[in-house]
Amino acid sequence: MFQRWTNLARTLYLREHIDRSLFSNKGKDMAELKQGDMAPDFELPRAGGDPVKLSDYRGKLLVLFFYPKDDTEGCTAEALAFSALEAEFERAGAAVVGISPDSVRSHEKFQAKHGLTVTLLADQEKAAIEAYGVWTEKSMYGRRFMGVERSTFLIGVDGRIRSIWRKVRVRGHAEAVLQAVREA
């Protein structure tokens, strides 16, 4: 009994006193990306295909949306909205790519289940997720944890970030991004 209380006390102490900056890229070796910055390069595996690099989209506008997890309510709604407008994005000269820390297999199931047409990239090592500064501390029901902050980046034909949407609310977001692409 005493051992259990000791472990509980240790756990509670660590939760209160641990340096959360150890688990976040905020303030570490990189400033938060802003409009006009060069978009960080990446090469990630794609659901149902070859790896994709940022440089594959040079000369074209790119909508890069980061989402927390396949097949969850908000992420499904966001991916469905971007898929529904994909032809409009193409007519406006932009490609749409989603990135999450899920596996390629998870992305393939997600796309098949919901009929998604946008390209989904797997970033299980969180290299691009961290490079774009979207791996952040989150809180739900009083519990703190690290996760992907739903964010979207519009990358110009020159590889520079033209617009950033952070802490995205899904409703109407894809339409707002499409409007920004049309104005770019």
Low-confidence stretches: 17-30
Number of strands: 9
CATH fold-level name:
Glutaredoxin
- What assembly state would you assign to the polypeptide chains in this entry? single chain
Q: Examine the secondary-structure arrangement and name the CATH architecture.
A: 3-Layer(aba) Sandwich
Name the structural class: alpha/beta
CATH H-level superfamily: Glutaredoxin
Give the integer mean of the pLDDT values: 86
Main pleated sheet = 5 strands, mixed
Strand order of the largest sheet: 5-4-3-8-9
Put simply, the count of helices is 6
Topology pattern, helix = H, strand = E = HEEEHHEHEHEEEEH
Instruction: Give the amount of beta strand, in percent.
Output: 25-35%
CATH class: Alpha Beta
Q: How large is the radius of gyration? A: 18 Å
Shape: globular
The domain tally reads 1
Helix content: 25-40%
Quote the distance from N terminus to C terminus: 64 Å
Structure notes:
With 184 residues, the chain is α/β, with parallel strands linked by helices. It has one domain (25-183): Glutaredoxin. The protein contains six helices and nine strands; from the N terminus they run αβββααβαβαββββα. It has a five-stranded mixed sheet with strand order 5-4-3-8-9. Strands 1-2 form a two-stranded antiparallel ribbon. The longest helix has 16 residues, at 2-17. The chain is globular. It starts with a helix and ends with a helix.
